[in-house]
Amino acid sequence: MHINLKNSGLALLVSITATKAFALEIAPGDYEPIPAGGNVLGLYAKYSSSHERYLQDKKLSSSSTLRTQVELLRFIHSVGISDGTVLQPQFILPYGDLTAGSSARALGSNHGIGDFILAAPLLTTVASHRDIFSFGPYFYLPTGSYDHNKALNVGENRWRMLWQAGYIHHFTDRWAVDTAADVSWFSHNNDYGASKATLREKPLYEYQAYLRYSFSPLSHFGVGGGYISGGESSVDGINQQDTQRTFYLSASMAYLFTPHLQGLIVIGKDQHTESGFKQDKNVTLRLATFF
User: Fold this and answer.
1) Phi, psi of 21, deg, nearest 5
2) Collapsing DSSP states into helix, strand and coil, what is residue 173?
3) How far apart are CA 234 and CA 231, in angstroms?
4) 174, 235, 237, 271: which one has the fewest Cβ atoms less than 10 Å from its Cβ?
5) Which tens digits make up the pLDDT trace of 150-181?
6) Helix boundaries (H) for the chain
7) How many whole angstroms from its chain centre is CA 116?
8) Across the beta sheet with 233-235, what order do the strands follow?
9) Which positions ≥6 away from 75 have C-beta within 8 Å?
10) Are 138 and 118 in contact (CB under 8 A)?
């Protein structure tokens, strides 16, 4: 998702990134392998709100309201590669609704289909202590709705490739720590803003870690957080000096309602944001069915 603002007095487009929309967040237990031949269909509802906007660690506004509502459909199929190793090809289809208010109301609102995501992480179980290692690509296709004349857009109008590595360490049958690190590379957006400028963005990095306590294999409680950095952008060669450094905390609860239906809730907020909108509320709900 992209958010554009006019830079007062200079008529330059400043790229303010909705960091939570760009990042590929995990929930505790996400990289526990699905048995070979199994499938998971997940429906997500994500909501976030922001009231503060920053640039270079300086607060620009305390009344720049931005609300995002995103629904995602995700399908995963597990393919057995060898004993203890599976490949999990999947797709993610998002739909978003963005609304700005208060001092940011000039940004307006927008809604539509987001960029289609294809992925194929490889997961390996270390038999001696059941630890999990995962690694794989996520490709964001520029298929989402985009209008260069609008300040808010659900689609990015550019290609994106993200590589994510994850590691789960099981201390006991109940306790585990889930970690993930990823980096994103972006192609240029050559149709950015009313003047159809060229937007470039440097790689974006994220690290996440959660401590998880399991009541059963698919019911658990987790606490943790993450750190996002990088993503400095330029418009027609003019550096926007908008490097992101965001630290956030989250808590999650998953519960297995039936042998084939799991519910998940994740609640979090940004603790520090150097550039962009600081999220004061971030809620994710997920229903997943296993078959």
Assistant:
1) -75, -35
2) coil
3) 10
4) 237
5) 888 889 999 999 999 999 999 999 999 999 99
6) 19-22
7) 13
8) 189-192, 197-201, 233-235, 238-239
9) 39, 40, 41, 42, 90, 91
10) yes
Residue length of the chain: 291
Identity of the amino acid at 231: G
Q: Which whole-number Å values give the CA distances from 230 to 10, 13, 19, 207, 241, in the listed order?
A: 24, 19, 10, 12, 11
H helices, E strands: number in the chain: 1, 24
pLDDT in tens, 76-135: 999 999 999 999 999 999 999 998 888 878 888 889 999 999 999 999 998 777 899 999
Distances, alpha carbon 66 to alpha carbons 8, 86, 154, in Å? 19, 40, 13
Residue partners of 282: CB distance under 8 A and separation at least 6: 20, 46, 47, 48, 248, 250, 266, 267, 268, 269, 270
pTM tops 0.85, yes or no: yes
Q: Which residues pair with 134 in a beta bridge?
A: 123, 166
